[in-house]
Task: structure prediction
Amino acid sequence: MTGAPRAQTEPVETLEQIKSRIEAAIPGLGLEIQCNGAVPGQASLVVPPARALEAARFLRDDPQLALDYCSNVSGVDWLDRVVEEHARVTRVMDGQERVFDECRERRVPGHLEAVYHLYSMRLRHGPVILRQRTVNRVDQARVASLTPVWRSAEFQEREAYDLFGIVFEGHPDLRRILMWDEYRDYPMRKDYVEPDDYEYEPTPHDDLREKARRHYPIEADA
Result:
């Protein structure tokens, strides 16, 4: 008689330890740890897209981690924003040095992120969360496809491409999966504006019906 499967547990190493081991194995990788204010226990590793495949293979092949399953790939949209930074500055006033708390504003350009939740089916632990960031949201919205490492990422990367406009370089079949090929926008972006042309809706109803009237006549209800 076999026992019940063991429950999923956290990796035996902390994220800081995992980061140190990856950087020792892959010099110059440039990893960062990003904290999650909403879920403190779910910090993530941020990897530069140019080195993402190397980091992914380490996470999968390392015997202590064996992260052999990617359960989820999510897109995240960060708009341009202004953040406040506080600093202590010293100024000379009336011949004396005085220390002041100064608040400065810094503009942070927008970017997109691809977020991967990784588990070990063999060792039954996880998740370890891996992130890639694009340079911007316009002409440099590219990251590396991790489908060559985790096949389960294939359709989910296509969904992030379709809805966020993240281009996954090296993906084996990068094309839209929900929207039609001619569609030119990305519905999950924060600045997405819903179109009011619902001519493609065969049976417009409720709010769609009123929007559709602006573009083509609708027969009166029977």
